[in-house]
């Protein structure tokens, strides 16, 4: 017999049965490759995982403008400057698509930005490394955008509709970025000895941090199992890292550059490039805020937010004025 007022009452029991049925139906839809849309029922943990991943991704795009933005005034020609300006603007646009996708899950953009500024939200480890020479701009386009594409192409098939659709557009733009980066590297490698050396130095510094972009090894990844079950992720971190290495090593050889990994060798048995050990302690330090540029990146982002306050105030005041004008006219 049920007693009113206790947790074990009929309502709670009915709700549990109902939730289990909803959960089963949700997983069936995922397994059938149906897209989940904002107004559909979804488990709270699915929503939270998406907000976490999409907002981290958005923050990465926004912070990711800084290392390259650093070279806009020093690009070696007008053509290079125009391409770099367009690329950095594209990254900002990607951040905006992604914040908009996260907002469909019921979290406000202001809240996400607040978490970033308060140092509570993560962004990709890769953007905490400095851009010391022009060759770094080539290396970022080739390697960082290359890694981003490898990770993001499968996200175009993510089970959550708004994220998947945002990724389709982002990937198209990233592939243009990757080509312009590779073309910078190619030009340097076909240039004089000092230019080729600059390209090699950039590869030496960016190679290992790029491998870390794919996240911790599978054995240490907290979220991969659930995220693959929900088809948010389609591949594990190690699988994507390996795909990136297999695609990129021949590109480095074409440039005449040496991948800075003495243990790198082609394994005939598996058909993959076997690589040396990744320094996961360095990754942990960078994610914990102790990378070479973490403090500088956050300081710059906070300052930019403060400098832009008047624009947001003006836009808000204008929107209010327009609203009252429409109300008066109605
Ligand atoms: N940096 O359990 P997992 C770009 C965290 S591309 C910092 O494996 P998950 C384009 C992870 O958040 C770069 N933190 O996590 C561009 C988690 O911490 P939490 C951005 C990392 O989510 C190019 C913990 O470690 N791309 O911006 C990193 O299943 C050029 C455990 O890890 C994306 O965000 C890292 N590298 O897999 C812009 C792609 N890796 O949240 C400008 C979407 C892991 O529990 C210029 N995201 N962590 O506190 C993803 O695909 C996934 O979130 C992974 C991580 C693969 C990054």
UniProtKB/TrEMBL annotation:
<dbReference type="InterPro" id="IPR011881">
    <property type="entry name" value="PaaA"/>
</dbReference>
<dbReference type="GO" id="GO:0097266">
    <property type="term" value="F:phenylacetyl-CoA 1,2-epoxidase activity"/>
</dbReference>
<dbReference type="InterPro" id="IPR007814">
    <property type="entry name" value="PaaA_PaaC"/>
</dbReference>
<protein>
    <submittedName>
        <fullName>1,2-phenylacetyl-CoA epoxidase subunit A</fullName>
        <ecNumber>1.14.13.149</ecNumber>
    </submittedName>
</protein>
<dbReference type="Pfam" id="PF05138">
    <property type="entry name" value="PaaA_PaaC"/>
</dbReference>
<keyword id="KW-0560">Oxidoreductase</keyword>
<dbReference type="InterPro" id="IPR009078">
    <property type="entry name" value="Ferritin-like_SF"/>
</dbReference>
<dbReference type="InterPro" id="IPR012347">
    <property type="entry name" value="Ferritin-like"/>
</dbReference>
<dbReference type="InterPro" id="IPR052703">
    <property type="entry name" value="Aromatic_CoA_ox/epox"/>
</dbReference>
């Amino acid at each position: 017999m049920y007693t009113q007022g206790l947790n074990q009452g009929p309502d709670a029991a009915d709700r549990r049965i109902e939730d289990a049925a909803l959960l089963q139906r949700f997983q069936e839809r995922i397994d059938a490759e149906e897209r989940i849309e904002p107004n559909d029922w979804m488990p709270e943990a699915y929503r939270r995982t998406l907000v976490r991943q999409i907002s981290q991704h958005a923050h990465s795009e926004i912070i990711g403008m800084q290392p390259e933005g650093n070279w806009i005034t020093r690009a070696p020609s007008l053509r290079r400057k125009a391409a770099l300006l367009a690329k950095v603007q594209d990254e900002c646009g990607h951040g905006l698509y992604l914040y908009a996708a996260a907002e469909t899950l019921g979290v406000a953009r202001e809240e996400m930005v607040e978490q970033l500024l308060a140092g509570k939200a993560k962004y990709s480890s890769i953007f905490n490394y400095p851009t010391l020479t022009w060759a770094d701009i080539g290396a970022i386009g080739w390697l960082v955008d290359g890694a981003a594409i490898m990770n993001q192409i499968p996200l175009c098939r993510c089970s959550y509709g708004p994220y998947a659709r945002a990724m389709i557009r982002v990937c198209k733009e990233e592939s243009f970025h990757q080509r312009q980066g590779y073309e910078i590297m190619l030009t340097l490698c076909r240039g004089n000895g000092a230019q080729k050396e600059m390209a090699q130095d950039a590869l030496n510094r960016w190679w290992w941090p790029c491998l870390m972009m794919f996240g911790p090894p599978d054995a240490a990844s907290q979220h991969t199992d659930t995220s693959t079950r929900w088809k948010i992720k389609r591949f594990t971190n190690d699988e994507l890292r390996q795909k990136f290495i297999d695609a990129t090593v021949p590109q480095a050889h074409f440039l005449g550059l040496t991948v800075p990994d003495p243990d790198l060798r082609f394994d005939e048995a598996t058909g993959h490039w076997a690589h040396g050990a990744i320094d996961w302690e360095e990754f942990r330090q960078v994610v914990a805020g102790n990378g070479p540029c973490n403090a500088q990146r956050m300081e710059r982002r906070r300052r930019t937010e403060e400098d832009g306050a008047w624009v947001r105030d003006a836009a808000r005041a204008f929107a209010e004025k327009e609203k009252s004008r429409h109300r008066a006219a109605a």
